[in-house]
Amino acid sequence: QLVPDYQTSWQGLSVAALSKRFGDVEALRDAALSVKPGEVLALVGPSGAGKTTLCRIIAGLTDADAGSVSIDGEDISGLPPGLRRVALMFESYALYPHLTVRENILSPLRARGRNRELGSSSIGFDELLSVLEISHLVERLPVALSGGQKQRVALARALIQDPRLLMLDEPISHLDAKLRHKLRGEIRRMLSVRQHPSIWSTPDGLEALSVGDKVAVIHSGRIEQIGTPEEIFQHPASIKVARLFGDPPINIIRGELSGEAGKAAFVSASLKLELSPLLQELVQDRTRKNIYIGVNPTDIHINSNGKFSGSLYSVEAFGKNYIVTVQLSDGEIVKIKTKDPMEKSIGSEILFNISPAGLFLFDGEHGTALA
Ligand code: ATP
């Protein structure tokens, strides 16, 4: 069984005003977040956003320039890594090269002198190996493992501990699609059962939405938004956030608002779209110049009676879905996700409609959500 004694004293992690510079690079700026026991926080952002830096500071492996880290109400900012009871699984694995897989996985328990738990009878060891599909590798040295196998050994080493906080830095990003799919669910299940407050970092927006109870979006060292997966997906606070989700990502089109109360529309060189009643209510300035709209590829529908037109640029088939790329008259590119095969040839005219309810509005200067 993977379930440790439930610790009623757990309060979880709280991070306040963390900042870190590396020379000219502001790796982290004023970052704040919290994770409760039993909660998985998905930390999502593109490469270089600051995910690893944040995890390393929490683990005590990198010193912050400013800010604090508390676990269970205790400020641990000054504690050395070994005394924090925080488990961090690195994207770079960090396995001991001279130890076998078994010894690597058990090394954190050994380091804390918990010898009685060593060996194959220790908590969850066999089940962990079997779930991660590494049982047959236990006597090997890391040099004899593939990248994906090393990643799973590093994951086992993090999961076997009984930490006050568990951090998985891109835990499944180097695995093939099938194993990634399986382990995403299995790891998520283990985290739920064990109730450790956990951080799961990933560059993949959809992975974040599926594993996180809460999602924190980080970009250029700043936390852009924290919320439930639904909040983040349905109300992205900025274009940077919106672009991380959706496959393919949301279409962003520049234009302006025009019209009077109750009749405001988005206008670009090639589109004129009436806003939904909800957006009509929410938008303050109905003649605002310089805005962006965001529209998800699933909210655009190819239709022979469609109001809008463009020319077919490319078609990609992904199993049951097709990604149809259309070029509008002003050169703007729009991606449409559809289940219907596209029989037209490249360059043909494509007619389509856009669901007014699927529109997002963003400020043209800062990219922040308008409504
Ligand atoms: P990835 O998904 O690629 O791992 P990340 O979100 O984890 O990216 P970080 O590794 O935290 O990003 O890096 C944040 C920024 O800080 C990057 O611009 C990176 O180049 C820089 N950086 C990180 N560590 C160092 C270091 N030790 N020295 C100099 N710059 C660093």
From TrEMBL:
<dbReference type="Pfam" id="PF00005">
    <property type="entry name" value="ABC_tran"/>
</dbReference>
<keyword id="KW-0472">Membrane</keyword>
<dbReference type="InterPro" id="IPR008995">
    <property type="entry name" value="Mo/tungstate-bd_C_term_dom"/>
</dbReference>
<keyword id="KW-1003">Cell membrane</keyword>
<feature type="domain" description="ABC transporter">
    <location>
        <begin position="13"/>
        <end position="245"/>
    </location>
</feature>
<keyword id="KW-1278">Translocase</keyword>
<keyword id="KW-0547">Nucleotide-binding</keyword>
<dbReference type="InterPro" id="IPR012340">
    <property type="entry name" value="NA-bd_OB-fold"/>
</dbReference>
<comment type="similarity">
    <text>Belongs to the ABC transporter superfamily.</text>
</comment>
<dbReference type="GO" id="GO:0005524">
    <property type="term" value="F:ATP binding"/>
</dbReference>
<protein>
    <submittedName>
        <fullName>ABC transporter ATP-binding protein</fullName>
    </submittedName>
</protein>
<dbReference type="InterPro" id="IPR047641">
    <property type="entry name" value="ABC_transpr_MalK/UgpC-like"/>
</dbReference>
<keyword id="KW-0813">Transport</keyword>
<dbReference type="InterPro" id="IPR027417">
    <property type="entry name" value="P-loop_NTPase"/>
</dbReference>
<dbReference type="InterPro" id="IPR003439">
    <property type="entry name" value="ABC_transporter-like_ATP-bd"/>
</dbReference>
<keyword id="KW-0067">ATP-binding</keyword>
<dbReference type="InterPro" id="IPR003593">
    <property type="entry name" value="AAA+_ATPase"/>
</dbReference>
<dbReference type="InterPro" id="IPR015853">
    <property type="entry name" value="ABC_transpr_FbpC"/>
</dbReference>
<dbReference type="InterPro" id="IPR017871">
    <property type="entry name" value="ABC_transporter-like_CS"/>
</dbReference>
